[in-house]
Amino acid sequence: MSSCSEIKKQALKKVKGAKNLKELDRVYKRYLGGKGEVFLVLKNLKDFSENKRKEIGKEINLVKKDIEEAIKEKQEALKEIAINEIIEKDKLDITIPGKKIKKGHLHPITLTLRKIQEIFQNMGFSIIEGPEVETEWYNFDALNIPKDHPARDAWDTFWLQGNEKLLLRTHTSPVQIRYMEKNQPPFRIIVPGRVFRHEATDASHEINFYHLEGLMIDKQISMANFKAVMEHFLKSFFGKKIKMRLRPSFFPFTEPSFEIDISCVACGGKGCSVCKKTGWLETMGAGMVHPNVLKAGGLNPKDWQGFAFGMGVDRLIMMKHKINDIRLFYNNDLRFLKQF
Ligand code: FA5
Predict the structure, then answer these.
(1) Which of 163, 168, 169, 295 has the most CB atoms around its CB within 10 Å?
(2) pLDDT of residue 3
(3) Domain check: are 85 and 132 in the same one?
(4) Residue 96, in any domain of the structure
(5) Does one domain contain both 11 and 49?
């Protein structure tokens, strides 16, 4: 059995050297536990004479008290260290660069529609929408295309099953009539939207694509006004160097009618494979609104006149970005879409 002073010396040394609470607990058990060193001294007291018993008893109780105090003190210190370690581990380092969140972006058609809308809004045009499911009346009859008229052949139509009179609109022109019915001129509107045609798809034809219609009605709106509006639009969209020309054409809902061409964006008008050596690219149909259309919209052609136009948005983007297949817009191929 070690002497009391030896026990105290060893115990305090071990308390001091304990690196964590677990180690300290082991020290406690060794010296103050049920079968620890202090216990052994107390257990063996009976073997001593009364005087010696008193002396050792007093001494070992003091040793026990000192060890207890030293352990308590060390326990506090180790607890604080442990807490600081946890805080340090969980500490938020605001200087670490954040993780980049992968963001999607708008489809090229949406981006282009927004750009076109902005140009027309700056010229005072309002943006109007219409239904994609139309009646035969708005899509054809009201636009001066009566039943059995050969002009209907120009628009291969998806008729909705079970109802001969409903169809998926083949152009955004029906919104001309819908707007005239509810609004009194003067007005100028554009109508962006999805249209549908029952056609075989190829590099320049889709069955579902986008149109942007335009309509301006007032007392004295002329083709000169149209030319000015269109020239501003095309130069804003394609760039100042673009040249524009009007070419006679036919649409039942305009008289006179014309096609708008721009100088080829690929060769600048010299002639190449993109423009089929003509130097020109077709951008849209247009014309002065036919009196029958004004009448169908509830307006008197003697009081009002104006122009209308309709462009294929997909084809405009194809020209601008030199895209050679319209189907790329609808295939959801990220390699293509990420380029915009
Ligand atoms: C029309 O649809 C007329 N409503 C346009 C118009 C409005 C003329 C107002 C006069 C006044 P067209 O069928 O040509 O016109 O179509 C307009 C444009 O849509 C074309 O110039 C072309 O760029 C685009 N387009 C036509 N068919 C397809 C198709 N299958 N896929 C993609 N674009 C097409």
Answers:
(1) 169
(2) 84
(3) no
(4) no
(5) yes
286 lines ligand 1 (CB under 6 A): yes
Q: What CA–CA distances, in Å, run from 298 to 140, 142, 294, 315?
A: 16, 11, 6, 33
220-239 pLDDT tens trace: 999 999 999 999 999 999 99
Residue 226 located in a structural domain: yes
Q: Rounded mean pLDDT of 233-259?
A: 96
Distances 68 to 13, 56, 77, 89, 316 between C-alpha atoms, Å: 13, 18, 14, 31, 89
Q: Are 295 and 199 in contact (CB under 8 A)?
A: no
Select from 145, 171, 217, 294 the residue to mutate for testing ligand 1; criterion: most ligand atoms less than 8 Å from CB: 171
- The reply to whether 296 and 166 lie within a common domain is yes
Q: Whose CA is nearest to atom 31 of ligand 1?
A: 205
180 Cβ below 6 A of ligand 1: no
Which residue is closest in CA terms to ligand 1's atom 5? Answer: 310
pTM for the predicted model, two decimal places: 0.74
Examine residue 247 and state whether it is found in any structural domain, yes or no: yes
On whether both 177 and 258 belong to a single domain, the answer is yes
Query: Is 289 close to ligand 1, i.e. is its CB under 6 Å away?
Result: no
The sign of the torsion formed by the CA atoms of 336, 338, 339, 340 equals positive
One domain, residues 137 and 49:
no
The verdict on residue 71 lying in a domain is yes
Any idea which residue has 């180690």 for tokens?
23
Q: Which domain holds residue 114?
A: 108-337
CB of 206 sitting under 6 A from ligand 1: yes
